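Issue 218. Parser rejects a valid record. Input:
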Amino acid sequence: MNKRFLTTAAFLGAFSVILGAFGAHSLKEILTPLALNTFETAVRYQFYHVFALALTGILFKTYPGKWIRYAGIFFQLGILFFCGSLYLLTFFAASSITGFTWIGAITPLGGLFFILGWCLLATGILRSEK
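Output the parser choked on:
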């Protein structure tokens, strides 16, 4: 097992629940439906990839190696770039701060990191000697 991946997944999972509750109870009042949808997408993808990161941490025991380690790193980068950019866009929308729509261009990079994480996970399992 990879303790760092598992610990990070646990903290990010807790953070997902906190953000989801915050969005459901507090943000409905101040966000447009589009901005709220953006926030919900960020929380949903963060939570999905918390499970991917936890799975990676568990699989590392059976399939140790650089591919599995890279998969975990890419899942974390995906959460940072994909979800983080969506959280920032939501924050700017809620604060009526303009001029930061360019941050939306970062989101696909995070999506690419998610895809690469899944591909690296599969590669690590397939290339394992076990």
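Fixed in the parser; the record now loads. The two ends are 15 Å apart (CA to CA).
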